[in-house]
Design goal:
The complex is a heterodimer of chains A (109) and B (117).
Chain A (H helix, E strand, L loop, with lengths): L8 E5 L4 E6 L8 E7 L6 E6 L4 E2 L4 E4 L5 E6 L8 E8 L11 E6 L1
Parallel strand pairs in A: 1-9
Antiparallel strand pairs in A: 2-7, 3-4, 3-8, 5-6, 6-7, 8-9
Chain B lengths: L3 E4 L2 E4 L5 E7 L6 E7 L6 E7 L5 E2 L8 E7 L2 E6 L8 E8 L8 E3 L3 E5 L1
Parallel strand pairs in B: 2-11
Antiparallel strand pairs in B: 1-3, 3-8, 4-5, 4-9, 5-6, 7-8, 9-10, 9-11
The chains are: A mainly beta (109), B mainly beta (117).
Amino acid sequence: DAKTTQPPSMDCAEGRAANLPCNHSTISGNEYVYWYRQIHSQGPQYIIHGLKNNETNEMASLIITEDRKSSTLILPHATLRDTAVYYCIVVGNTGKLIFGQGTTLQVKP
Amino acid sequence: GAVVSQHPSWVICKSGTSVKIECRSLDFQATTMFWYRQFPKQSLMLMATSNEGSKATYEQGVEKDKFLINHASLTLSTLTVTSAHPEDSSFYICSARDSGAINSPLHFGNGTRLTVT
């Protein structure tokens, strides 16, 4: 499965949009991009996933570039409860989720 | 939505004893479950893939005789840490997929914090 690269940390003001980038330059055509987040001492929470097209759900939007080598997770109106570690994961035919170090998002009042 | 439940949420045991952790899919059937381990300030590490009715598949470096996995039904997988030692103290998390499709999301339990004294 393709490896991903994320910034180790980011800050965001409460109420503003949080844009979390992810690079996956070695992604293959049949691999999906998944986003999860983990709040301290809890299991990871599924946010969103996509293959080629941009996706939106009640939690977030996922923007995937046309060449699929990078993506951005957008939390439209960040709240303090969105403070967490966000993981971008590429999933292939094995169906396994291999976690990297993720991005620690700190939402500040 | 799909719910994965783990039990217990925390456990303290003495060195040399064994501990069993249960992972249940509450509202769906899961032919495959995954077990992870997470040390403080580190990311999740995949330990093994648990397959209903067959042997688990372990990731490289994970001792299968140390971490026994049983997946006897479509809604229950168990992880037994045998002869636990202080270095086995960690946060153990399971996950399951509520569909046979590989591209459907994995849902995670809330983890079990194991402390070996």
